[in-house]
Design brief:
about 10% strand; alpha/beta; about 325 residues; seven-stranded mixed sheet
């Protein structure tokens, strides 16, 4: 027979459990209070997110204003740094591809400030950069694309004309032979020439933006008008400067910055540097235009903000004596 004490203990346990449940329930509150608490938390999170977005936008605006200020300062520096640096020297500006045309105005302005006598030529690439690798293989016998297909034949025919004529163009400029330049124009009627070839030109500025990895590989393998032109310039001992626009923002110049990998995959500058060219990877900026003028004046190196650049600018040595010395030393062998 069960002892009454055990029966009382069981009842007390039941009531104690009920009491604990009541206390917990009261502490949690009603469903309406819970919903209100959740709504408050959601509002706090939304407010924090809005503040974060506002701060990011304010930061971006400050960075844009800082970049504009830096560019304005650099534009003020531009004429001071380059005025007269190329006085009495002849320069050929060779723009390759459609997007290069956008750089004509700032480049020619910088050359005028530097006192250069210049000739501007605009060359087509002759094929879409994305077809570069397959077209190069076909022309070299690789057989990865059919040159008789309607889509491939016109592009490859134009590419072949441009590539074969790029070396001839370099020789025409370096020798100062208008008849040879006319021959190139007959081969490439799409080429635009602004100016006259009156004498040999020993300073060459090659503007060659690119955004296709396939075309960059083609140039690395020695194809494309850029590589052909660079080899001819190297063989003649000319001053060759290869340039492209900056593709990453100034505040993000670290090796791991967004866009760095794409820039390395598409840039033609490493291949052209291997052929003896000085390189400028930010020629769309005032600093890049200063670097281009100084490189044309004789400073050799890889300049810019990209991963392959060693300096943003060549060393600028002020003073009229230095400018006269630099001009005489470079114009003796490179008129």
């Amino acid at each position: 027979m069960m002892d009454l004490r055990y029966h009382l203990a069981s009842l007390m346990s039941i009531f104690l459990a009920l009491a604990v449940g009541i206390v917990v329930g009261i502490s949690l509150g009603s469903s309406e209070r819970q919903a209100a608490t959740i709504r408050l938390l959601q509002q706090d999170v939304a407010a924090i997110r809005a503040e974060d977005s506002r701060l990011k936008e304010a930061n971006n605006d400050l960075q844009r204003r800082l970049a504009r200020h830096e560019e304005a300062v650099q534009q003020d520096l531009l004429p001071v740094a380059i005025r007269g640096r190329l006085s009495g020297n002849r320069v050929a500006v060779v723009l390759v591809g459609d997007t290069a045309a956008e750089l004509r105005a700032p480049i020619t302005r910088a050359l005028r400030l530097a006192g250069a006598d210049f000739l501007v030529l605009h060359l087509p690439r002759g094929e879409s950069a994305s077809e570069g690798t397959s077209a190069s293989s076909t022309r070299s016998g690789g057989g990865r694309s059919d040159p008789h297909t309607p889509s491939a034949a016109p592009a490859e025919e134009t590419a072949g004309r441009v590539d074969d004529s790029a070396g001839l163009l370099a020789r025409a400029l370096l020798a100062g032979r208008p008849a040879l330049l006319d021959e190139v124009r007959a081969r490439i009627p799409e080429m635009d020439v602004n100016g006259e070839l009156r004498a040999p030109i020993r300073r060459l500025l090659l503007i060659c933006p690119n955004d296709q990895p396939g075309y960059a590989r083609l140039v690395a393998d020695g194809g494309g008008p850029e590589a052909v032109f660079a080899r001819s310039a190297q063989a003649e001992g000319a001053i060759l400067v290869a340039a492209e626009p900056q593709t990453t923002p100034l505040p993000g110049r670290t090796p791991g910055a967004p866009g760095t990998a794409a820039r390395q995959a598409t840039s033609l500058l490493p291949s052209l540097a291997a052929l003896g060219a000085s390189t400028i990877d930010h020629v769309d900026t005032a600093m890049g235009q200063i670097a281009a003028v100084l490189a044309l004046a004789g400073s050799h190196g890889n300049f810019g903000t990209g991963p392959d650049a060693t300096r943003i600018l060549p060393v600028i040595e002020a003073g009229s004596d230095r400018q006269s010395t630099l001009h005489s030393s470079t114009s003796t062998s490179h008129p």
